[in-house]
Every structure is written in structure tokens, then in C-alpha cells.
Amino acid sequence: MKHPAKLKPKKILFIATRQIGDVLVTTPLIKKARELWPKAEFHFLGYRGKLDMLRGNPDIAKLIETSDRPKLGEYLSLFYRLFQRYDLAIVTQPSDRAYFYGLFAAFRRVGILSGHPQGLVAQDHNRKSKSEKQNAWKKAICLHSVEVDYFKQHVVTEKLRLLEVFFKNPAELFSKPISVTPPIGEALSPLIAGKLQQPYVVIHPGPLTAYKRWPLAHWQDLISWLVKHGFQVVLSASPAKQDIELNHAILSLLNDETLQKVINAAGQLSIPQAGSLIRGAVLYVGVDTSITHLAAACNIPTIALFGATPPTNFGPWPNGFIGKQPYQLRARTQTVGNVTILQGPGDCVPCRKAGCEDRVGSRSECLDFLEPNQVIEAIEQALQM
Description:
It contains 15 helices and 13 strands. With 385 residues, it is α/β, with parallel strands linked by helices.
């Protein structure tokens, strides 16, 4: 059998069936694959509405969208469309569905395997055994696989390691600057563009889940400080009802003088437009969410507020970093390149649970106790004020 390093696939399918942030962090993998196979045709399969982070990506010839909950008819249509059309499938998520797509689509596969739960005790052995069984069949159908490590391995490194088998010297993967590629920009609507004044700061307060939220009063203090120091503030948010309501709740706490210097762009920006807005800003501040990764990729000073999530796994990648791991697991403030990650106090930080109560609607004390002054100090440092 030919060594994988000698393979020259002509058509490659990348598969990422998760959120938009998970799609964005595959771009270093795509770029490195292009270096390996300059003449290959790259396609990308993901969920409908989640692929905007790849708009205008020069290495992707086709985006293939599917529902996150497809019915039988859509499954059959997709399988017919994919069946053995590719020489290689690169499965960037450990889900069963992603692997089934890869199995139908390509002659060969490489893929991500789920990691074992951390800190297992005796009663959790069944859970570990189940995880091993789920991984076994996936590993058996792959040329090469990489296991998730939520505390020690960065997600960009995890994706890049999928190409290890194709290198005679895998260390080459991390010997040059590594960057995330943002989507191509798109013009802002006149309603937003006509109000912008320099210098402005983009703030994105709404995460996907409540346990990643920073308290409303802290946002009030931070925005008031920014306006007092001569910055216009643009509040961005997705069109989701919870994010629009969060922005309105923050605005309701601001006095009239401060409100005059704040633009609420909630629900008014596509992902490419958000990229354009961010590129024009002097600074970005946000929570652990996909737009924070986009800001880092746009090469502006980015301040990310992290709670339960280990930055060593999913901290925004600082463009141009050389190596496998930009971050420490725990540090109240750490800056690498254009990215500053702030964490709250506590020996449990980061726990990788869904907040203190380990449920989606939980609060997170580590974020509650991450004071506005810590963020302000990071801003002053980033902007050399």
C-alpha cells in the first residue's frame, strides 16, 4: 500500500457539522492542505446557515449545505450527491453523522475522535467504555485520527494534526506562522455605515449559551468608560431573540449622554458585514463566541472574556503564531499577538462545565467576578493609552 505521504488526491471534502466558529477554525487546516495539494479541488460540507465564515475563501471551490436535522429525503439526496465522489474526506468533528458523510463520500478518510471525559471516577467507567466503542469504528475506517483534548490541545492544532500522516516530517505543520482566514468583507448598510465615527470599538456581549455571559452591570460600566474616553461603541449581536434582548437590556442601563455614542447593530449584520465592521474598529471586546474568533482573524486588538471554556482548547487563535499552543490553561490576563484573554478568579477555572450548575442556563461565578477594571486595564494596554 502506498504511504499516505505519497498520495495525491484530486478532490477533497472537508466536513464540519457544527457552529460557525467551528467552521472558521478549520481555515488553517484548509490553507495547509492547499500547500500539500496545490492542484486538488476542495469542497466543504456543513450545516445550512453556518458556512458564512468561508465566503470568498480562495481555496474552497464549492460549499455544500445540509440541514442540521435532515429528513430521510434530504439524507438520500445528499448521499447520492456525495457517494464516492472524493478521493479524501477530512472529518473535522467527532460526530457519528460527520463520519457517515465521510464514509459515503470518499475512498479514504482522516478524522477527529471524541476525547475521554476528564477526571473519571469509578462510576464513570461505563461512560469511558462507551466513548471508546464509539471511537473504535471511526478509527477503523480512517487512515489517521486525532483525539480531542479539551484542556491541553488547541482546536486549531487538533485540526492541523489531521494532516500529520501526509507529512514525512509532521513537525513541518507547526514550523511556520499559522493564521485563521476570515470571510471576505461585505459593505455595511447605510443605516450602520452612516452613523460610524472614528475611533470606534465593537462589543459583542451575546454568547450562544447563558453560562458564557458577562453581567449586564459590567457591560454598563465598560461602555460608559469607553464613551467617556472618546470612543464610539458599536454593539453587535446575532438575529437571535435572546441576543437582541440582551443588547436592549444593556442599552436600558446607559444614560442619555452615553447612548448618543452607542450604535445597536443587533441583527443587522451578516457574518461578512461583521468582518467589515470589525476591520474598521480600533478594538474588539467579546465573550467566548464565534464573532470573537472572527475579530482575532481580522487582526485587530481582540479582548476575549473567558469563563468555563479552556483557552488552551478554544481561545481565539493569534494570527501568525508559530507552534502548537498559544495559551496557558489559567491566567487572569494573557496576551499573545493581537489577542488578550481574560479569566475570572477561582481554582476551578476553567472547569469546562456549563456554568456553576452545569446546565445551559447557569451563571458562572468566574465571569461574575471578572471585574470591569480588569477589562479596562487590558484595553489600556492593548491601545497603549
